[in-house]
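Notebook p. 47: complex prediction with 3-methyl-2-oxobutanoic acid.
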Amino acid sequence: MKKKIHDFFEMKNKREPITFITSYDYPTATFVEKAGIDMILVGDSLGMCIYGYDGTMPVTMDQMIAHSDAVRRGAPNTFVIGDMPFLSYQPSDQVAVENAGRFFKESGVDAIKLEGGVRVASRIRAIVEAGMLVMGHIGLTPQSSSQLGGFKAQGRTLESAKAQIDDALAVQEAGAAMILLEAIPPEVSGYIRKTLSIPVLSIGAGLDCDGQLLIVSDALGIFEAFTPKFVKRYAEIAKVSTEALSAYCKDVKSGAFPETKHTYGMIPEERVKFEKWAKSKRS
Ligand code: KIV
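Predicted complex, structure tokens below:
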């Protein structure tokens, strides 16, 4: 049974952890759904994990829609959240509503996520007033990492912790249905979880949240360029894939592949006719 937003509120109230992971394609989404994970984020982290960009800035709405559409088909019974890419909501409330609407109309997501607190409150309000579910995202917000001085944890001083709390309150006040905290100390995220009535998800924000998110490419060991401190690896897919591809390469070079079982035999009486015909052509 596909979970709805009220189920996540119930899980928060019962202190039942919400499981959350990114996906960018159809096959991975099928694995996530089979594993029983509660929510999927089609994150703009696909800029790095799928397209090999240096960051998330170049990602477009068209790319996000295409990947969300594939994920939706792979996980029809999982709550899917589309991530608003850079400049899809920053220019104005109107632009934000139009692009959020594209996600729902063109890829069938259940909610959208956008980065920022106080400064995007009017964007969140406008999207919610247009009838869509929003997840906020504060702390280390990759789209503004240059303003944050890089991919740095936030809320590590009293002043910064208070700014995170103000952002979290602004996101809830603007009408967001959930919030994601990225790279914030557990003391601060625990305070936010207890203060907010909406579900508070964590990526690198510790255990005292209502659920946990990981980037699937980190969790499965697919993305090897860098690994943030908060990642736990559950598989080594890059290693296994490279080993398998090297074995394939070796087999082709040595003639060990393909074997007879990998080929299509002729119908026996046709083979007799074919051999006769081929012999006549050779002589
Ligand atoms: O794009 C993404 O996957 C994200 C996470 C880093 C939270 O926004």
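Notes: The radius of gyration is 24 Å. The first strand starts at residue 18 and ends at 22.
Next step: compare against the earlier run before touching the bench.
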